[in-house]
């Protein structure tokens, strides 16, 4: 699965690699082998790192703008987002999937809080940084929407505990002065979906 995920994160990844990841995740979801340790590895090793990479990927994608260099390859971010959307789709209806999506939301929102708290650059670098943050917020909100938009039916106690922590981090991020209005609106849409 790890090899397939790494390959799937390439900008030009063939669709069959994503199908292989989805098939493996469905096999993992068989009741006989579904254990908390497997879900934890799914969260920590497969789902969260791509979402945390959106900032770096956006910086690399927009770097030629700062250097006035028009030469850029394919944008890898849509492929990463599509991977996350399909991965969370595979978790729909899986026992324990609620805890995975809540843990994912918590990790990603904390990461977004750190992004918004980072020191701001000045001059031309500030304009590029604001664009990087704005696009990163959009991709992070889209990833959160993929996770949270599944609905909260069948949440266990652990999911509710993590859900309360997620709500607190949501409120903290929404209150950041460095979050622009469009980013705040995107996060509010996701927050409205959050029914844990």
List keywords for this structure.
73% helix; mainly alpha; 0% strand; globular
- Assign a percent range to the helix content: over 70%
Largest sheet: none
Please tell me what the overall shape is: globular
Strand/helix succession: HHHHHHHHH
Count of runs of 4 or more consecutive helical residues: 9
Mean pLDDT across every amino acid position: 76
Low-confidence blocks of residues: none
| Category from helices, strands and their pairing | mainly alpha
Q: Count up the domains.
A: 1
Per DSSP E runs of 2 or more residues, the count of β-strands stands at: 0
* C-alpha-based Rg, rounded: 17 Å
Query: How far do the termini sit from each other?
Result: 29 Å
What portion of the residues fall into strands of 2 or more residues? under 5%
- What oligomeric arrangement do these chains adopt? single chain
Protein described:
With 196 residues, the protein is an all-alpha fold. It has one domain. It has helices spanning 2-8, 15-28, 36-52, 54-66, 77-91, 97-117, 123-148, 157-174, 181-193. The protein is globular.
């Amino acid at each position: 699965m790890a090899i397939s995920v790494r390959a799937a994160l390439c900008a030009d990844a063939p669709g069959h690699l994503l199908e292989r990841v989805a098939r493996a995740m469905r096999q993992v979801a068989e009741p006989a082998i579904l254990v908390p340790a497997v879900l934890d590895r799914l969260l920590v090793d497969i789902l969260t790192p791509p979402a945390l990479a959106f900032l770096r990927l956006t910086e690399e994608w927009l770097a030629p703008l700062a250097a006035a260099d028009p030469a850029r390859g394919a944008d890898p971010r849509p492929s990463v987002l599509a991977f996350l959307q399909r991965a969370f789709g595979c978790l729909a209806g899986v026992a324990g999937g609620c805890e995975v999506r809540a843990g994912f939301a918590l990790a990603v929102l904390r990461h977004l809080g750190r992004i918004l708290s980072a020191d701001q650059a000045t001059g031309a670098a500030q304009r590029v940084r604001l664009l990087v943050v704005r696009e990163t917020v959009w991709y992070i909100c889209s990833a959160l929407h993929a996770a949270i938009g599944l609905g909260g039916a069948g949440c266990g106690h652990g999911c509710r505990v993590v859900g309360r922590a997620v709500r607190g981090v949501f409120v903290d991020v929404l209150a950041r002065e460095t979050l622009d209005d469009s980013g705040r609106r995107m996060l509010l849409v996701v927050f409205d979906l959050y029914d844990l």
